[in-house]
Write a structure and sequence with these properties.
single chain, alpha/beta, FAD/NAD(P)-binding domain, 5-stranded parallel beta sheet, elongated, disulfide bond, FAD
């Protein structure tokens, strides 16, 4: 497909969501005239919040706000200040040339600076009833901290799939709201660190279902039951449930970088001195570099940081 003629710009932001859009707001207000590739074929522009219903923990919205509506407001604010938003996916970046060459499916640019805000995707299992168009975001989710306090989960039996530190953290957090939390783990011992495993084993509201998997999610408008299969006996049991939480990790969207930017062993981008990567005038923000907090508000914060870092560095280099 023919691409538009490549132009050189001060800043290209790769990715949208809270991090990318916030970076765009700050960069455009600083007259950097950023270009933002918000994605298209690879997933909904706006990131993970586009598949989220009520967002109740983002400051400024005491009654909560729907995830897509919140991202629309972020996007509109970025556009208001002059961000050029392109509905396209970046397929590659060549950091061996300068200005850096950013290539999308249908567009390309040369960039004096680049902010990577491509986010991460929660790992999910293909379980009947747990998918898009079924009970995903209607009782099935992948973030206890984001969603656990919602009314539909309160006072219910909740199920967490996983066996590592994340699963124990999610389960422990959910005990604040649930009548009981069940960790469903396909093995006979947790992969979590010893101290985290002890926390789960000793908690009065946590029960671990060993050698087990969830084979089905069922209900009416929201989740009402899960089917648990014991892998040793083959017996399936239908249990009442108010929710199912995946806690099996996240995959950062960094493969397109093809090893040009330093990554941690888990694939997340390494940053130093704020949001700076190992490459000059290349920055990372949001869930592409944050494997600890992974919240909309922290992503927005690092998006702000990346734009300010880029603005200052471009000025210092006389490139703005």
């Amino acid at each position: 497909m023919t691409k538009h003629k490549a132009e050189t710009v001060n800043l290209v932001i790769i990715g949208s969501g809270p991090a990318g859009y916030t970076a765009a707001i700050y960069a455009s207000r600083a007259n950097l005239f950023p270009v933002l590739y918000e994605g298209f074929f690879s997933g909904p522009a706006g990131g993970q919040l586009m598949t989220t219903t009520d967002v109740e923990n983002f400051p400024g919205f005491p009654e909560g706000i729907m995830g897509p509506k919140l991202m629309d407001q972020f996007r509109n604010q970025a556009a208001r200040f002059g961000t050029k938003i392109i509905s396209d996916d970046v397929v590659s970046v060549d950091f061996s040339v300068y200005p850096y060459h950013v290539v999308g499916k249908n567009h390309e640019h040369y960039a004096k600076s680049v902010i990577i805000a491509t986010g991460a995707n929660a790992k999910r299992l293909e379980i009947p009833g747990a998918n898009e168009g079924e009970f995903w975001q209607r009782g099935v989710t992948a973030c206890a901290v984001c969603d656990g306090a919602m009314p539909i989960f309160r006072g219910k039996d909740l199920y967490v799939i996983g066996g590592g530190d994340s699963a124990v953290e999610e389960a422990t957090y959910l005990t604040k709201f649930a009548s009981k939390v069940f960790i469903v783990h396909r093995r006979d011992e947790l992969r979590a660190s010893k101290i985290m495993a002890e926390r789960a084993l000793s908690h009065p509201k946590v029960e671990i279902l060993w050698d087990s998997v969830v084979t089905k999610v069922d209900g009416g408008h929201v989740v009402e039951h899960v089917v648990i299969k014991n892998l040793k006996t083959g017996v399936e049991t239908k249990k009442p449930a108010g929710g199912l939480f995946f806690a099996i990790g996240h995959t950062p969207n960094t493969a397109f970088l093809k090893g040009q930017v330093d990554l941690h062993d888990n694939g997340y981008i390494k940053v130093r001195d704020g949001t700076r990567t190992n490459l000059k005038l290349v920055y990372a923000c949001g869930d592409a570099m944050d494997h600890v907090y992974r919240q909309a508000i922290t992503a927005a914060g690092t998006g702000c940081m990346a734009a300010l870092d880029a603005e200052r560095d471009l000025a210092a280099e006389g490139l703005d």
